[in-house]
Design a protein that fits this description.
Blueprint: E1 2-3, E2 27-31, H1 36-46, E3 53-58, H2 62-71, E4 78-83, H3 88-92, E5 97-100, H4 112-133, E6 138-141, H5 146-159, E7 168-171, H6 173-187, E8 198-200, E9 207-209, H7 223-243, H8 252-269, E10 274-281, E11 289-297, E12 300-305, H9 313-340
Parallel strand pairs: 2-3, 2-5, 3-4, 5-6, 6-7
Antiparallel strand pairs: 1-12, 7-10, 8-9, 10-11, 11-12
Helix pairs in contact: 1-2, 1-8, 4-5, 4-9, 5-9, 6-7
The structure holds (2S)-2-hydroxybutanedioic acid.
């Protein structure tokens, strides 16, 4: 399932990036910490004793009250808050992991171009600051449209001579969480015991849940159930937007799923190899970026998934369709970056 092409040579990384087990120092920044995802994520990360310092940044001053609120909780990381653009460099200076969750949420009828135009400036600004202040950090982005934003951010980091494919991630854990939740409900089993890989990208046309690869393998869905749940996972994001009357997208489930991603990433930064479902550079499916189970370690990506999944005919067809869309959406992000350059 895994392919080795993205394994970086050890010497590829500056030694300052290597976190030694005995140091137990993992500093994390949340960019967009005052929005619905960021504030809930801040609370969850404050409960993570593996994080030593949590830097909360937002353009809005609201972040200051969020910081003082969660600082009253005992234990966990020390919390520092930063508000206003001039404090963006300070908020990421010492971080090993930078989480970009700032976004203008998707709205019904919004095109991908509109969403990209709305969110790209904040991502651009962050990439420039990372390149200047902390190019060794891992950057993980949940800002939509992820399929275009990740190629855009990668191009921007490349422009500023700070691009390392192994250290930039699109957080798509929400799709795995949804697939797991719906399968567990259908099978009437505890979701804790289930895992469903989700490959492709993060948009209605590109999300490809592989229910045929669900583990433990004795849990099986028939083709009709798999078809129904696939459609459900694909349209879940927009369903939340509709339920929130178009004013916001998923915040609580997003925060929880990003927290899951961070737990794994921090473990990896401390030297434990682990697997996360994430959107990264991956050339094995006929597109430059692809989501899927990805092995991570203290240097970022260790191995991306390769095109050797055993799939049902239905999954094969929707994957083919997803790749066509993904190429367009990746191209859109790269084109947008060329216009910015
Ligand atoms: C989702 O799938 O619900 C998310 O992409 C929502 C968002 O806008 O962050």
């Amino acid at each position: 399932m895994f392919s080795r092409s993205l394994i970086p040579a050890k010497s590829y990384f500056p030694t300052s990036y290597i976190l030694k087990e005995q140091r137990r120092n993992a500093q994390v920044s949340i960019i967009g910490a005052a929005n619905g995802i960021g504030s809930n994520l801040a609370l969850l990360l404050k409960r993570n004793n593996n994080i030593t310092r949590l830097n909360l940044y937002d353009d809005s001053e609201k972040v200051l009250s969020i910081g003082s609120d969660i600082s009253e909780l005992p234990g966990g990381p020390r919390v520092a808050t930063y508000s206003g653009y001039s404090f963006l460099p300070a908020s990421i200076r010492s971080s090993h992991l930078i989480l970009m969750v700032s976004r203008i949420p998707r709205k019904p009828g919004y095109t991908r171009d509109q969403m990209l135009a709305a969110n790209a400036p904040a991502v651009h600004r962050l990439c420039k600051t990372i390149a200047e202040i902390n190019p060794d950090a891992v950057l993980a982005i949940s800002t939509n449209p992820i399929n275009s934003i990740l190629p855009f951010a990668s191009s921007m980091l490349f422009k500023y001579c700070a691009y390392e494919a192994a250290k930039i991630f699109g957080i798509t854990q929400i799709d795995t969480s949804r697939a797991k939740a719906y399968a567990a409900k259908t099978l009437n089993v505890n979701p804790r015991h289930l895992h469903v890989p989700v490959i492709g990208g993060h948009s209605d046309e590109t999300i490809v849940p592989l229910f045929s690869n669900m583990t433990p393998t004795h849990y099986k869905l028939d083709s009709c159930q798999a078809d129904t749940l696939t459609k459900l996972v694909k349209k879940s994001g927009m369903e939340v937007v509709r339920n929130k009357h178009g004013v916001d997208s998923s915040t609580l489930a997003m925060a929880c799923s990003i927290n899951e991603f961070v737990e794994n990433m921090v473990e990896a930064l401390y030297g434990g190899a682990t697997v996360v479902n994430t959107f990264t550079a991956n050339p094995h499916f006929g597109t430059r970026f692809f989501a899927g189970p990805t092995k991570i370690g203290c240097y970022g990506i260790v191995e991306t998934c390769g095109a050797n999944f055993q799939m049902s005919e239905y999954e094969r067809v929707i994957l083919g369709n997803a790749i066509t869309h993904l190429n367009k959406e990746v191209g859109l992000g790269e084109e947008y970056a060329r216009m910015e350059a």
